[in-house]
Specification:
By secondary structure, the protein is of the alpha+beta class. It has eight helices and eight strands; from the N terminus they run ααααβββαβαβααβββ. It has two domains: 99 residues, no CATH class; 145 residues, no CATH class.
Length: 252
C-alpha cells in the first residue's frame, strides 16, 4: 500500500511538472507561431494538443510504474532521468514538427488570401524572395502579396506549377510587400453588405465580428481566405486595405 502511495505521489509530481512545461510550450506555439486565427485555420491547435496530450500522459504513467523507494538511490535516479529525457525528447520533437508546419505568411493571391506554411515553400526557391520579405519568419505570420506576372510566359509557368501543387502564394520569387498590392486588394475585395445577403444564415456571426471591430457592413470589405484544410473570410478596411478581422466562413 505504501509503495503505491509513493508511486501515485511521484506520478502526481511528474504530472504537475509536465503540465507546466506543456503550458510554456503552448505559450510559444499559440502566442507566437499560431496566433488566432491560424491555430484553427492551419490546424495547429489539434496537432499540438495531440502531441502534448500523449507526452503529458505517458511520462507520469511510466513514473507510476518504475518509481520504487526500495531501489538504490542511484538506480532510481537513473530511471527517473531516463523517463524525463525521453519525455522531453518526445515533446521537443513534437514541438519541432508543429514549428516546421507553422504558418509563415498570409499572402494576397490575385483575388484571395492564402495562408502559406513553412512546409509549403519550395526549398529551391528560398533565397529568391525580395529583401523586404523574410522567407520563413519565426515570429508569426506576416502579411504579404503576390506581385503581378511579368509576362504571359511567366503566367503560364506559374499556372502550370500551381496545377502541380506549388501554390502561387507559396513562391518566394513572386512575393512583394503588402503595401505595394493594396490597390489590387481593394479592387478584388467586395462589400460585407453583399456577404450578408449571400449568406443570410450567417448574418448574426458576421454582425458579431463587425460589432467587435466597431464597424458597419457598409464600411468593411471582404476577401476569401484559403487555409490548410478550411476556408475562412478576411474583413479588410475599404480604404487602407488593412486586415481587420476573420470569420470561419467559406465566402467563395
Amino acid at each position: 500500500m505504501t509503495l503505491w502511495k509513493d508511486r501515485l505521489r511521484a506520478s502526481g509530481v511528474h504530472l504537475g511538472a509536465s503540465v507546466v512545461v506543456a503550458g510554456l510550450a503552448a505559450l510559444l506555439v499559440f502566442g507566437l507561431w499560431y496566433p488566432y486565427p491560424y491555430r484553427e485555420i492551419s490546424g495547429g491547435r489539434d496537432l499540438f494538443l495531440l502531441v502534448v496530450a500523449v507526452d503529458v500522459v505517458i511520462g507520469p504513467l511510466i513514473t507510476l510504474m518504475v518509481f520504487d523507494r526500495r531501489k538504490p538511490w542511484g538506480e532510481l535516479r537513473r530511471d527517473l532521468a531516463v523517463v524525463a529525457t525521453l519525455q522531453m525528447a518526445a515533446l521537443g520533437y513534437g514541438t519541432w514538427t508543429v514549428a516546421v508546419a507553422r504558418p509563415v505568411h498570409l499572402v494576397f493571391e490575385l483575388d484571395r488570401f492564402r495562408v502559406v506554411h513553412g512546409v509549403d515553400v519550395p526549398e529551391e526557391l528560398l533565397g529568391r524572395e525580395p529583401p523586404t520579405v523574410q522567407a520563413l519568419p519565426w515570429t508569426g505570420p506576416t502579411l504579404i502579396a503576390v506581385r503581378p506576372f511579368r509576362d504571359a510566359a511567366e503566367n503560364l509557368e506559374v499556372t502550370t506549377a500551381a496545377l502541380g501543387g506549388v501554390h502561387i502564394g507559396a513562391r518566394p520569387d513572386l512575393w512583394q510587400a503588402y503595401d505595394a498590392a493594396k490597390p489590387r486588394v481593394l479592387q478584388a475585395a467586395r462589400p460585407v453588405s453583399e456577404l450578408r445577403k449571400r449568406f443570410g444564415v450567417h448574418a448574426p456571426a458576421i454582425d458579431a465580428v463587425l460589432k467587435s471591430s466597431q464597424r458597419t457592413p457598409d464600411s468593411v470589405a471582404y476577401l476569401p481566405v484559403v487555409g490548410r484544410r478550411s476556408f475562412w473570410t478576411a474583413f479588410v478596411d475599404p480604404v487602407s486595405a488593412d486586415v481587420i478581422a476573420f470569420l470561419p466562413l467559406d465566402s467563395f
